[in-house]
Design a protein that fits this description.
Elements lengths: L3 H4 L4 H5 L4 H9 L6 E2 L11 H12 L12 H15 L9 E4 L1 H13 L5 E6 L5 H7 L3 E6 L10 H10 L4 E5 L11 H13 L3 E5 L24 E6 L12 E4 L2 H14 L5 H13 L1 H24 L12 E2 L10 H12 L1 E2 L1 E2 L11 E4 L4 H16 L1
Parallel strand pairs: 1-10, 3-4, 3-5, 5-6, 6-7
Antiparallel strand pairs: 2-8, 7-8, 9-12, 11-12
Bound molecules: pyridoxal-5'-phosphate.
Length: 390
């Protein structure tokens, strides 16, 4: 048999792409018994029953076909009403909204629609694992803006200004509440950033998939602020707040030209998101809010517990404003984040994600997901304490 390694070459870009640090680490967890996992970024709740039931009956009633490429018009109209009610934003359901396979697809489409080779994209770091690889695949030159722990991992207006003065930045990626740090921006902080965004004429991709999980203030959508709608591609989805990760439904809202471009790529690569997933998303928007609130109250209780506990055992940790992640410093242990995570897993069977998975600047930190049952969180703290002592 011929060696297929010699026959088939994969592209240089893909060859050079690092695999997701989260997945690589969780391959180690597979097959281990009695591990408490604080690793994966998904709700421990099962999707609320009314939403699951809607998906089941959709199949029973014979909804098994493609939908319009842009997604069900009924869902797009609902999203449009919802955004108007929640943030006062006006998006035309015919031309300014696209239903995607999760925010993940929307991110890929947005980069590929906007980027010309060599365009400079500024990405605050630590950040969600897919931003830089997807922008790079689209041909962008990625520049990191390193956020600081003493600022709660928030980009400041002057840091943004300086980064734009140093390099001719065309696009900014923003994610709040943030994965992995839980940092978010209130209205005053966003308004200050908007001044700089306008000063440098930036176009922004805003990933607000955790917006409903904001604990200390009202989330404000970036594109709802004056003069921002025309320069923002707003991304959101159902995975996190509604505990619908497996349904794979997200959406993008933006200027008609951008949504038309994204739709072109989407119609050739995906055709459409699944019909029963879209119908379940309609049910989520219509009748899912009570469940979201119940889950949010529980996350908030866990947040209080885990942040207090981590600080008590000597792992300094800021109070995250949203999402379901704690991002403590492990610098006092003198270990690298990868060694800390590997040894903790081996010795105490607790899985968390090493900070480096979210960019080199996140070394010295680990990410803990508190989308984990309260009892497990309690036990995990006991085990982490033992590990640090030893
Ligand atoms: C910040 C952020 N954006 C996007 C995604 C992907 O979400 P989806 O399930 O909608 O593709 C995730 C998933 O962890 C995330 O944390």
């Amino acid at each position: 048999m011929k060696n297929s390694n010699k026959i088939i070459q994969i592209s240089k870009k893909v060859e050079d792409m690092a695999p997701s640090g989260i997945r690589a680490f969780f391959d180690l967890v597979l097959g281990m018994k009695d591990v408490i996992s604080l690793g994966v970024g998904e709700p421990d709740f099962v999707t609320p029953w009314n939403i699951r039931e809607k998906a089941i009956t959709a199949y029973e009633e014979g909804y098994t076909s493609y939908t319009s490429n842009k997604g069900l018009i009924s869902l797009r109209k609902q999203i449009s009403h919802f955004l108007k009610y929640k943030f006062g934003m006006e998006y035309d359901p015919e031309n300014e909204i696209l239903i995607t396979v999760g925010v993940s697809e929307a991110l890929d489409l947005a980069w590929r629609t906007l980027i010309n080779p060599g365009d400079k994209v500024l990405i605050p770091e630590p950040c969600y694992v897919s931003y830089a690889p997807l922008a790079d695949m689209a041909g962008a030159k990625v520049i990191s803006l390193i956020t600081k722990a003493e600022h709660g991992f928030k980009m400041t207006p002057s840091e943004l200004d300086q980064a734009c003065q140093k390099d001719k930045i065309k696009y900014l990626m923003i994610n709040y509440p943030s994965n992995p740090t839980g940092a978010s921006y209130n209205k005053a902080e966003l308004s200050a950033l908007c001044k700089v965004i306008k000063k440098h004429d930036l176009v922004v991709i805003s990933d607000e998939v955790y917006d409903d999980l904001t604990y200390d203030f009202e989330h404000v959508a970036l594109s709802s602020l004056p003069g921002m709608k025309e320069r923002v591609v707003y991304l959101n989805g159902f995975s996190k707040a509604y505990a619908m990760t497996g349904f794979r439904i997200g959406f993008a809202c933006g200027p008609e030209k951008v949504i038309a471009g994204m739709t072109k790529i989407h119609q050739y690569t995906i055709l459409c998101a699944s019909i029963n997933g879209q119908m379940a998303a309609e049910e989520a928007l219509a009748n899912g809010h009570k469940s979201v609130n119940m889950m949010k109250i529980e996350y908030k209780r866990r947040r209080q517990f885990i942040i207090e506990s981590l600080n008590e055992i000597g792992l300094k940790c800021h109070m995250p404003e949203g999402a379901f992640y704690a991002f403590p410093s492990i610098k006092t242990t003198g270990m690298s984040s990868m060694d800390f995570a590997k040894d903790l897993l081996k010795e105490q069977k607790v899985a968390l994600v090493p900070g480096v998975a979210f960019g080199p600047s996140a070394e010295g930190h680990v990410r803990i997901s508190y989308a984990t049952a309260f009892e497990d969180l309690k036990e995990a703290v006991v085990r982490i304490k033992k590990f640090i002592k030893s």
